[in-house]
Amino acid sequence: MLTALILVCSLATSPDLRGCTRDNALDVLQVPETFASPVTCLMHGQAYLANTAAGRDPGPNEAVKVVCVRGTPGGVDHAESRH
Predict the structure, then answer these.
(1) 12-37: b or e for each residue (b if 16 or more CB lie within 10 Å)?
(2) I want to staple 25 with a disulfide (CB 3.0 to 4.6 A). Which of 7, 35, 55, 68 is the partner?
(3) Do residues 8 and 64 make contact, with C-beta atoms less than 8 angstroms apart?
(4) Are strands 2-10 and 62-70 parallel, antiparallel or unpaired?
(5) What is the Cα–Cα distance from 12 to 15, expressed in whole angstroms?
(6) Which of 23, 20, 40 has the alpha carbon at shortest distance from 31?
(7) What is the pTM of this model?
(8) Which residues are CB-contacts of 11 (< 8 A; sequence separation ≥ 6)?
């Protein structure tokens, strides 16, 4: 199963977002659902983001990135992260 994570990153640290990871994100939001398909995971992650303050009004030097990782909401493992 896949869980969507929303990473709020500083553009000063990761100007192109490729370097934006859970380890250097300013904030990490976890979607409280699991998904079988990567496409479904990303779509629901984007929809979840749209309903948050980070998605509606990001800071002037912030950007957001949605990633899907293997695991359940209570047990996402950093080693299983795929970007």
Answers:
(1) eebeeeeebbeeebeeebbbebbbee
(2) 7
(3) yes
(4) antiparallel
(5) 6
(6) 40
(7) 0.79
(8) 61, 62, 63
Nearest CA among 12, 14, 32, 31 for reference residue 23: 14
- pLDDT tens, residue by residue, 18-76: 888 898 899 999 999 999 999 999 999 999 999 988 788 888 889 899 999 997 666 55
Report DSSP letters for 15-74, one per residue.
TTSTT--TTT-SEEEE-S--BSSHHHHHHHHHHHHHTSHHHHS--TTEEEEEEEEES-TT
Tokens 């869980």 correspond to 3
Give yes or no for a contact between 26 and 65, defined as CB atoms under 8 angstroms apart: no
And the tokens for 37? 């398909």
Spatial distance between the Cα atoms of 38 and 75, rounded to a whole number of angstroms = 18
